[in-house]
UniProtKB/TrEMBL annotation:
Protein name according to UniProt: Adenylate kinase
One of the protein's GO biological processes: AMP salvage
Gene name for this UniProt entry: adk
Major subcellular location class: cytoplasm
Function: Catalyzes the reversible transfer of the terminal phosphate group between ATP and AMP. Plays an important role in cellular energy homeostasis and in adenine nucleotide metabolism.
Listed EC numbers: 2.7.4.3
Binding-site positions, ATP: G10, A11, G12, K13, G14, T15, R127, T136, Y137, K199
Length: 214
């Protein structure tokens, strides 16, 4: 199963991605995770990516495409993959088509999780992440047992720069301007699978697998 997961910041892509890759036994390829790992390690790529992400801007295409291409060539992608966070622009979508064509591969579906802007902002600004193990919480929907302390390792939680209100509003604006055209692009190709992201986590996942099948 070769899939793309689309949706604005705060749509719950990460949660659904985890369930999808477990269901279909495919690797989860998240450009956001790749960038954050590089930022944590202080690599040149990480520093470049952080300068864009902290402003709520998209990381330039050439950086993202090169990373994704290398990842798709790894052995665990032979039976499929789930791309999360890429492509984000029409240019990236077209570049991905070229990469897949070179590999003699085709996409099966493009899952689009759709959520209203107000809901997205509430979800994002309440997110907290563990500084040590990376576990994610939400101050309203899934709070830790002890305020600002990770249930798993006991370390302090923090709010990522790209989850702050001003940044998330900018990210949504950028998404609407640059990423939404991908939905039209994949709709024309007959690949789009629209999902109502305002439902519960379980309901959203059930809608996805009902449409994809086994």
């Amino acid at each position: 199963m070769r899939l793309i997961l689309l949706g604005p910041p705060g749509a719950g892509k990460g949660t659904q991605a985890s369930a999808i890759v477990k269901k279909y036994d495919i690797p989860h390829i998240s450009t956001g995770d790749i960038f954050r790992d590089n930022i944590k390690r202080g690599t040149e790529l990480g520093l470049k990516a952080k300068s864009y992400m902290d402003q709520g801007l998209l990381v330039p295409d050439d950086l993202v495409i090169s990373i994704v291409k290398d990842r798709l060539l790894e052995g665990d992608c032979k039976k499929g993959f789930l791309l999360d966070g890429f492509p984000r622009t029409l240019a990236q979508g077209e570049a991905l088509d070229d990469v897949l064509a070179d590999m003699d591969l085709k996409l099966d579906k493009v899952i689009n999780i759709d959520v209203e802007k107000e809901v997205l902002i509430e979800r994002a600004v309440g997110r907290r992440v563990c500084k040590s193990c990376g576990s994610t919480y939400h101050v309203k929907f899934s709070p830790p047992k002890q305020e600002n302390i990770c249930d798993k390792c006991g370390e302090e939680l923090f709010q990522r720069d790209d989850d702050k209100k001003e940044t998330i509003e900018k990210r949504i604006e950028v998404y609407l301007e640059q990423t939404r055209p991908l939905i039209d692009y994949y709709t024309e190709k007959g690949l789009i699978l629209n999902v109502d992201g305002s439902k519960s986590i379980d309901s959203i996942f059930q809608d996805i697998i009902n449409s994809l099948g086994d």
